């Protein structure tokens, strides 16, 4: 049972999105989201185990990700609404696909945050070998969550990445 109310986007309901970020700010957000401590730790382990041919595999993966991002940007132009991935899956497939995409995105973010915290602990233990890893994980997670809450509460969207 598909209702037209569930299929209408926020823009069609009268909600307005505004473009307040510059291209430089969007680039900084993209770089910050793509490059992290877990990427460097995972890449070094993969190159150590499988050799430098892994870099070619990473280039293939980057090309596939670029194609997906191009498709997502086309859908964002066609349907400018908040919620992106889940909304597109819901519009083009069904409600359960939208739910699955949203839940998978949330789960992937939880796993990525845990991976980043573990990588931080491994790097810090290399510098301070007598400290336990759980201490660094606790410190990094409490710092990240507190700074994120304060940052979003104090700063406006237009000030992200600006000097």
- Beta-strand residue fraction: under 5%
* Number of extended strands: 0
Give the overall shape, derived from the CA principal axes: globular
Specify the biggest β-sheet. none
State the end-to-end distance.
Answer: 50 Å
Q: What is the H-and-E element order?
A: HHHHHHH
Could you name the key traits of this structure?
163 residues; mainly alpha; 7 helices; 73% helix; disordered N terminus
How would you describe this protein?
It is a single chain. The chain is mainly alpha-helical and 163 residues long. It has a domain at 43-78. The protein is built from seven helices and no strands. The chain has helices at 4-7, 23-34, 37-50, 54-78, 84-92, 95-127, 133-154. The longest helix has 33 residues, at 95-127. It starts with a helix and ends in a 9-residue tail after the last helix. 6% of the residues are buried. Mean pLDDT is 75; it is low at 1-6.
């Amino acid at each position: 049972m598909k209702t037209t109310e569930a299929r209408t986007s926020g823009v069609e309901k009268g909600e307005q999105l505004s473009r307040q970020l510059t291209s430089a700010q969007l680039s900084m957000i993209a770089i910050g989201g793509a490059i992290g401590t877990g990427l460097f730790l995972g890449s070094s382990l993969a190159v150590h185990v499988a050799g430098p041919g892994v870099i070619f595999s990473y280039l293939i993966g980057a090309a596939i990700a670029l194609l997906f991002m191009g498709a997502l940007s086309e859908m964002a132009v066609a349907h400018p609404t908040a919620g992106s991935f889940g909304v597109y899956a819901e519009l083009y497939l069904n409600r359960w696909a939208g739910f699955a995409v949203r839940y998978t995105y949330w789960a992937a973010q939880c796993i990525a945050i845990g991976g980043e915290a573990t990588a931080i602990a491994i790097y810090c233990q290399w510098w301070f070998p007598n400290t336990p890893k759980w201490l660094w994980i606790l410190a990094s997670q409490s710092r990240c969550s507190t700074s994120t809450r304060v940052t979003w509460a104090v700063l406006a969207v237009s000030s992200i990445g600006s000097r």
